[in-house]
Amino acid sequence: MSPRQLRHFPELRSVAEIPAFHAGMQPNTAAILCAGKVLSYAELDRASSKLARALLAEGVRQGERVAFLGKESVDYYVAFFGCARAGAVLVPINFRLTSHEVGHILRDSGSRVLLVDRDLAEVVRPLLPELPELRVIGLDRLGEWISPYPDTAPSRWADPEQPVVQLYTSGTTGLPKGVVLAQRSFFAIRDALADRGLTWIDWREDDRNLIGIPGFHVGGIWWATQAFAAGVTNIAMPRFDSAEAVRLIHGHGVTTVCVVPSMLRLLLAEPDVDAETFRSVRKVVYGGSPIAEALLREALPVLDCDFAQIYGLTETGNTAVCLPPADHDPRLGRLRAAGRAYPGVQIKIIDPDGAELPPGEVGEVCLRTPARMVEYWRLPEATERTLREGWVHTGDAGHLDADGYLFIQDRLKDMIIVGGENVYPTEIENVLAQHPGVADSAVVGVPDDRFGEAVHAFVARRPGEQVGPRELLSLCTERLAGFKIPRRFEFVERIPRNPSGKILRRELRDPFWSTKDRQVN
User: Interior CA angle at 476 toward 131 and 263, to 5°?
Assistant: First the structure.
């Protein structure tokens, strides 16, 4: 491919600049389609400018937080760009969270404004008495709210260190932490690839991009920003549905797709799909959780296109490692690799004492990337534990081979990944502990063919109590998002712990993983 065919605009340095830039170049090109609603780049420019003006009129100052609670929509991206143009920081909230979980995020972030989907108003209503300063705007009247304001944007914030989004990721304490990402998190990898002339993740003028991962995930918002910055047309769904995704791919001639492995599995399981179904697709980018080699081998001939795997964390600003299309040739033996570092990114593997390990030895994966987070919001000690001298300590266990390819072997932390969603056991155990019949509990991830992993809870009852799965399921349903709810409750006499009281999770997990050759699925 000649350089003229590639879509890279190095003059774009901030999220705030994207709508106006492409409105000037291609005003009538569709920027975003979702649920039957379409905005051109000119319309996205005007709507996000109006929203920015509305936020400023509301008294939102530079660096203050604006929360969004809703499914994927055209309005979400209007809010994303509008916040950036006002100098505010967007706080996207997973629409599957409970009122209790949403309340923590609103309080912790100190959000001044909440944009909320009408269908989720009941989640927010119980929280309003304790958040008297929060201005709540229903998305069903967003147009009415912004209509009085001019459609010219305020000053743009182009400082690479300017925070632009705050994403919440669960922590081992059970409370989600706000990961603050700056403008550079969305442009550093793009520019590094372009500077080297690499097309691992590339854009072309005629691309039509499917956003499979929701925008409250770093993978979703990062991927969408790459596509918007390239000025291509984006197609989104309110929530991922494999049958609808197939229809959109075929009906809109989708060329680029970003999914987690469980989504890829669901796409392949749709009736009558074959290479003709995906004829328009030229590249599939996947990540969010490890992929089974069997799934990858199944997908390669059916989609018959380039595949690129991305690996990273919210804390690394999304992808820091990539398995490029060329390395997806099964003959190379690299299908089990997470990939290799992008230009400008470094990987090291360390032992428990912090010493760097040679190729082939398993230890903690550490990543040094210009896209890394600014901080955990208002958690300096947690920030220092994860971000040390510019290195993000991932908590994942892996090794490098002699050629510098990273292989993920296990997770040092206790995180469970359910269909690309991060689940931490302590949060669930804290909920189970609230039942008077529960003496102790431990939660682990077990293999699941559909979602990669499933949540499995071991429960020790208090003497004389007969609490059963139904009561615990009801308790969890009230307090946890659906993907966090244990698939099974197994009742045991006691929870194994070491002398210091730490749960011996490996003792509980190992029987489920004994037939697997790695401890992630």
Answer: 95
